[in-house]
Specification:
GO terms for molecular function: biotin--[biotin carboxyl-carrier protein] ligase activity. The protein is an alpha+beta fold. 28% of the residues lie in helices and 28% in strands.
Length: 271
């Protein structure tokens, strides 16, 4: 089965570059931008050997999983571009729901699942990581910002040796391929990127993201380096920061860090 764009993305003239195998679709997308590419374009493979996730962590996609990156360019600041990651999360969660429903219609043995967005850029299923996302940006010679959003979806296998629980669609009972997920994703991305509208529509994306958020209203702990802060996950603000309410009722915006569900002990236990 070949990778194809969904009908909405195809009609919009979005580009598509497919690799049988590649080191990193994010690197491929940024190389395209540096070489003068300006048309929005997807870079996809079912075999990625040198991918990098958030905080430069290794993200290897074995054969059959989906490694996908989309290139866009914007006349926005890096801070505004950073909020595009939330649009990506909403888009991929929607695509996964659609694919799961379609698979269940094709096969009574295929299961539907509840997918949740984990701040800032993961998707969970049953509490285990299913998708990792990574956003990179670079200023182009014309002053616009090249933005590459990488999305790695575990379709047939889950990586081993990670500090957190991971899963894949096949383990969840979803009978779908990387090509199925990508076709749905390319269309849902086109929709959510339009709603985001160069940052002007982030308030709507924010609402959609919060509707699907994991741990909202619950105790979470954020670890950044050796520092851990815990509190109730109240919301995300207009810049995408997670807002915690601490035990002394302070509201603390968190710009970056690793999220653990539960109190500080849960974060320290992950050392």
């Amino acid at each position: 089965m070949a990778f194809t764009l969904g009908p909405k993305a195809r009609a919009a003239g979005v580009g598509l570059k497919v690799f049988d195998e590649t080191g990193s679709t994010n690197a491929d997308a940024m190389a395209y931008a540096r070489a003068g590419g300006r048309t929005p374009c997807w870079f996809v493979t079912t075999m990625q050997t040198a991918g990098r996730g958030r905080r430069n962590r290794v993200w290897v996609a074995p054969r059959g999983n989906l490694a996908s990156s989309v290139f866009e360019s914007f006349n926005v600041t890096p801070a505004v571009a950073a909020t595009l990651g939330f649009a990506a999360g909403v888009a991929l969660e929607k695509a996964l729901r659609e694919v799961s429903v379609e698979a269940a219609m094709r096969s009574p043995n295929s299961a539907a699942n509840d997918y949740r967005l984990k701040w800032p850029n993961d998707i969970l299923a049953g509490g285990s990581k299913l998708v990792g996302m990574n956003l990179e940006a670079e200023t182009l010679p014309d002053g616009r910002l090249a933005v590459v959003v990488g999305m790695g979806t575990n379709v047939v296998a889950a990586p081993e040796g990670l500090p957190t629980a991971v899963t894949c669609l096949s383990q969840l009972g979803v009978s779908a391929s990387a090509e199925d997920v990508f076709a749905a994703l390319s269309d849902s991305w086109h929709e959510m990127r339009g709603i985001w509208d160069d940052g002007r529509g982030f308030a709507k994306i924010r609402d959609l993201w919060l509707d699907r958020a994991a741990g909202l209203g619950q105790t979470v702990s954020i670890r950044s380096g050796s520092s851990v802060v815990s509190g109730i996950f109240d919301t995300i603000d207009e810049t995408g920061c997670m807002v915690l309410i601490t035990s002394d009722r302070r509201r603390i915006p968190i710009a970056a860090g690793d999220v653990y569900f539960g109190d500080a002990a849960s974060a320290k236990a992950a050392d």
